[in-house]
Amino acid sequence: MAEKFSIMYTPQGRRLHISGTLPANFIGEKTDDGTICALNEHNAAAIRRELPWCAPERVRLRKSIGCGDRLGIATAGHLRAVREGNMFPVLAQQSMREMQRARRSPKKVLDDATWGILEANYQMGFGCDADHLKTIEDIDACADAGFIGYTLDPGQYVDDAANTAGFDTLREKVNALNWATLRSNPQAHNDYFVAQHNFAEIDYLRSAAKYGAALAHVAVLNAHLAQKLGKNSYDLEVSVDETATVTTPAEHRFIALELKRLDINFIGLAPRFVGDFEKGVDYIGDLAAFEADYIQHVAIANEFDYKLSIHSGSDKFSIYPIIAKHSGSKVHVKTAGTSWVEALRVIAEKDGALFRQILVLACAGYDQNRASYHVSGNVDNIPHVADANLPSLLDHFDTREVLHVSFGQVLAQFYDAIYAVLNTHIESYHTVLHRHFKRHIQPFKA
Question: Is 437 helix (H, G, I), strand (E, B) or coil?
Fold first, then answer.
């Protein structure tokens, strides 16, 4: 039945073309060869009913890759690369922060993935990820949109000061935790980890002081999610990667044990690994140190049967072989802004004048735009190049980071112009994404 439905590109944007008799529940305009329908919320719901493979499914423990799409037109390009590997695609993935900056809603994110699936005629299943959710209001918005995959981010409650605090201070911090929400008390909790699970006293105290409040927040959010959707009806990941201090193996094991003790059914955990995972660029750090640390994290994930999730996973080409070697199938690589940066590569090639305007704006707003991201790029390091070489700037460290974090500001000023170029050259965009994402996926093919 897929041949009855197709996505077409028009000067006004993408449209759904339905050949033959119009099925019930679709709204569109009749033409000589069928019906042209807007890609709106109503028709997206109708296509998911008509073609169930256009609706997301749970990912569970399958080896997977998150393909964030800030513009909503990247899915077909992502899937060209996915078809050549063996990672399950998570396509409707965006944080509330990014949705707001990209003028999107949870419904729009899910619907855009639906249309991309149809465009690619991809019938092998895909997942969704309401990413980095921090509040009950965010959960409600994503649940109402139809998301069945969630990443909870309690990072604001992680106490990085515990990383260097002394014994007495740690004890005070632990005593002050919300024990009602944690369903325990300081003495019982201490006994559970020290006596039953062989934690050294100092490792327990540091772990509990650092992550106790964060896990209490996860418990509150998950309880609301379970009440809203039904327990065990969704995939859950917990993220503590966006913190100032590294998650040690002892702290990782504490988090896993505490999630299990609180009866939180999770499929993935994103620790803060050693080294730097900056946005849109390769791993920064000692590869041998990363491998030695990563092996310990893999052992903990295997012990409790969940996946390690690699956040800010875009373009970390130097460590993909290490991750693939040690993780086996229990891994999720999460990418987001790299597809936006690669869209700008197409604009640099097809409309150099527009690209230069975008770069000027991004450089001017970089100090403000970088505030909520982990980046170290410097606008003064961006080289001056001739028009013919503009696409080469997208291979430059500082350019990539400056453009990566500027997307909200850039879209606010150049929204229509950007979509006009990309819709006109959609095949070029999908080709660029195919080439770029093959480099992400191929190391995990074994």
Answer: helix
Our measurement of the distance from residue 398's CA atom to the centroid of its chain's CA atoms, rounded to an integer in Å, reads 22
Cα(27)–Cα(127) distance, rounded to whole angstroms?
A: 27
Distance CA 28, CA 112 (A): 18
Read off the pLDDT of residues 409-439 as tens digits, 9 standing for 90 and up.
999 999 999 999 999 999 999 999 999 999 9
Gyration radius of the chain's alpha carbons: 23
Q: Are 432 and 349 in contact (CB under 8 A)?
A: no
Asked if 237 contacts 309 with a C-beta cutoff of 8 angstroms, the reply is yes
Q: What is the pLDDT of residue 2?
A: 65
Question: Tokens 């063996």, residue?
Answer: 86
Beta bridge partners of residue 18, listed in sequence order: 5, 35
Helices (H), 230-350: 249-261, 287-304, 320-327, 338-350
Residue 290: partners with Cβ closer than 8 Å, 6 or more residues away:
273, 274, 275, 283, 319, 322
Q: Quick one: which H or E segment has residue 168?
A: helix 167-175
Residues 6+ apart with CB under 8 A from 150: 129, 130, 133, 139, 142, 225, 234, 235, 236, 237
What are the distances in angstroms from CA 282 to CA 40, 66, 134, 383?
A: 37, 17, 27, 19
Nearest in space to 101 (alpha carbons), one of 294, 365, 391, 392 = 365
The two beta strands, 13-18 and 5-10, are antiparallel
Q: Give me the residue label for tokens 């998150």.
A: 66
CA distance 301 to 11: 49
Instruction: Check if the beta carbon of residue 33 is closer than 8 Å to that of residue 22.
Output: no
Q: Which helix (H) or strand (E) holds 307?
A: strand 307-310
In 330-391, where do the E strands start and end? 331-335
Give the tens place of pLDDT for each residue, 287-328.
Answer: 999 999 999 999 999 999 999 999 999 999 999 999 999 999
Report domain extents, the chain.
2-131, 132-335, 338-442
The residues carrying an active-site annotation are: 131, 237
The pTM of the full predicted model, rounded to 2 decimals, is 0.96
For residue 166, count other CB atoms closer than 10 A to its CB. 9
